[in-house]
Amino acid sequence: MKEKVPLMKSRLGSKHHYPFNMIKRNDKAKYLYIYRHPEDTFVSFYHFLQSIREEKFDFDQMFEEFVSNDIEYGRYFEHVLSFATHKNDDNLLLISYEQLFNNRKEGYLRIAKFLGEDYYQSLVNDEALLNRVLENTSFDYMKKNLQFVHPNPKEPSKDTVKTVNFFRKGGVGDGKNKLSPDQIKRIRELANEIMKGTEVLKQWYGE
């Protein structure tokens, strides 16, 4: 892999789940951070783990882990806050899943503008290209064509993988249907405690 890196083109992209303080910053790079309402985030995360793990998780037990501060990549609220604190950085764009869900065209043009004027102008001046981007990033298209390859937990020592459908519902508001009133209350209280005064909190709860 190392010997191939110098041969790659200069414009590269990578995806990760690290909080802001764990990434090696580069002023020449651009960072796109997409966040989601915590209620929906938890429900989506629960179903995702159910699909890739052989052992089944208890919904309520996993909720306790989600709201605790002892979880991989750190608790969700602090994770979002770590990027929201840097919202004015020139090379960082924060955009919510809900914004993209409600108006993908507007969201993609905003992302293109952030990545570079050439990207933006390409989409603005070529309606066919923009429509192709919208089509190839639609939920139905991605659910059909994109799959997640994960090591097979039944045979971890072998070179076998388990193919998982990365996409489930692709909606907004599922958390309210799955979480108990007490769980919803606890998530809101944590969000208010940790993210008080942020624009993200206002988007989530109008506060």
Automatic annotation (TrEMBL):
Give every Sulfotransferase domain span. 6-198
Source superkingdom: Eukaryota
Task: Spell out the molecular function terms from Gene Ontology.
Answer: sulfotransferase activity
Which UniProt keywords are present, listed alphabetically?
Transferase
Give TM regions.
none
Keyword set includes Transferase: yes
Positions the record marks as coiled coil are none
Query: Does the keyword field hold Transferase?
Result: yes
In which family does this protein belong, per the annotation?
A: Belongs to the sulfotransferase 1 family.
Q: What is this protein called?
A: Sulfotransferase domain-containing protein
Q: Which species is the source of this protein?
A: Trichonephila inaurata madagascariensis
